[in-house]
Fold this sequence. Notes:
Elements: E1 8-14, E2 17-21, E3 39-43, E4 69-71, E5 77-79, E6 87-89, E7 94-98, H1 113-124, E8 139-144, E9 149-154, H2 161-164, H3 172-175, E10 195-201, E11 205-210, E12 223-228, H4 232-241, E13 246-249, H5 251-254, E14 263-267, E15 273-277, H6 288-297, H7 300-306, E16 312-314, H8 336-345, E17 349-350, E18 356-358, E19 361-362, E20 364-370, H9 374-389, E21 393-399, H10 401-407, E22 412-417, H11 423-431, H12 449-461, E23 466-471, E24 474-480, H13 481-484, H14 493-501, H15 505-508, H16 556-559
Parallel strand pairs: 3-12, 3-13, 20-21, 20-22
Antiparallel strand pairs: 1-15, 1-16, 2-13, 2-14, 4-5, 6-7, 7-9, 8-9, 10-11, 11-12, 15-22, 17-18, 18-19, 23-24
Helix pairs in contact: 6-8, 11-12
Domain Oligopeptide/dipeptide ABC transporter C-terminal: 476-537
Signal peptide: 1-23
Protein name: Oligopeptide/dipeptide ABC transporter ATP-binding protein
Amino acid sequence: MSTRRIRGAAVTAALTAAVTACSAPGGGGSGDGKATGPVVLGVASEPDTLSPLLGYGKDGNSKIFDGLLARDADLRLKPALAAELPKITDGGRTYTYALRDGVEFSDGEPLTAADVVYTYRTVLDAKTNNTFKSELDAVKEVEASGDDKVVFTLKYPYAPFAARTVLPIVPEHVAGKEDPNTGSFNTKPVGTGPYVLSRWSKGEKLTFKANPRYWGGKPKVKTFTMAIIGDDDVRATRLRSGDLDGAVLPPNLAATFEDEAGRRTYEARSYDFRAVTLPTANEVTGDRAIRRALDAAVDREAMVDKILDGAGRPAYGPLPVDDPAFTKDIERTKNLGKAGKILDEAGWKPGEDGIRSRDGQRASFDLLYPSGDKVRQDHALAYASDAKKAGIDVKVESATWEVIEPRMKDTAVLAGFGSTGDPDFGLYTLLHSSLAGDGFNNMARYDNPAVDRALDLAAAERIADRVAVMYAGRIVELADATVFFGPAGPRHPYSRGLLRALPDRAFTAIPGMLPELGDLPAGCAFAARCDRATDICAGPPPTGGALACHHPHVPEDVRA
């Protein structure tokens, strides 16, 4: 699946370990770690498509394509096809990118601004069958300014927008001649990245070779193959036999290679986590008492220790505990007593077999996990075991994603999600009701107006660290964004009027938040508290002119 998003009771945060050999049979590498020949890597699954228009590499993780921006090893944004980071103007509503000189697609055609415009417009086209166009909801228009400059105009200020532009760029002269949903570009891509696809044997392997036209220099590895091996144990066996040079393995299997001579283990810390979706449409999982009881009954610490061999941390939501946006003091340990009390008070009474029921409804539901994924299988079985101790019967079943997808609207799924660390990227798509049933977004179709309001308000708070509002050439309000967009709203009546007029979902979704617009004062209402205020700040603006605020914390483009 190109995108797999979930909503449910968080289970554990997994730390995926990739085990690779330092040398390979047949000259696949050398002892110093510099590859001199073909490399074969074992991976669990293959993509549905190789077209970014349908979601491939949309988070910047493709070796065939590049985005305007990319991320470095510390997940910080850096220029890729853009020559530099974007210029942001118009109060965060306009992003301008200058393209890097001399970039060519692998077929020798030059990259132009028209390719960027085509990519984004096609992704946003309602006729294009992708599940991530909602991630670009802020985009009003994207236009070329000559051959080497692209301008994005946003509907509303959206602070994380630059991170969305890691989306890979496709060539209009190739992809534009085909239907983006069914064209050959989906399996025969042309990009600007370091590698070119040389062969794709569906269900077996993908082989890549170095792109001689790559703008970033010659790759050290000339060719590599991704062998599709769905079973974790089989990948480990083939790695140990020398059939593979490297493999992505779950932590418990990766640990078995740590002491083997000639092999090296790499641990990749990530935002990846596993969770159980609890569909609201299901009579059992949609019951709030059942959901709260399961959250109390699950033993996250045991899952990390036993299933992940300690290579992970308990998760209490989509964000890890050391993320700056994580809400402190919400960590929870296993508490069967609390789970039992919640269910008792809600009328779920134990039967002779220990499984609870209420009004003839048995506390039982199915839990699906993708076939061949041993980590998710182990998590599902552990979850079911914990649930049974609370009197809830969870029946675990494996299935392919083709079987899971139509059932996930009312059947629990042991699903997974990962992000690049921006809270807005994961939380909104996981929880907002507007995305319920939108592909793998909000899989459980969670619908809670209070959560929607919080998510919308959080997006508003991310517009800027500080907000300055001008009236008649003067700053009439200067405040932290968290205060300005908080429940009480701005203090100045002119600011309130402006805020109410913004065409932004973040504000229209929370009617009644702001007081009514009142009379506007002649001068700056905040002059009395401003350390740079003068007498003129308290009076009306001079006839025929206006004064810019000289407060040092106001950005230059606002002051002017």
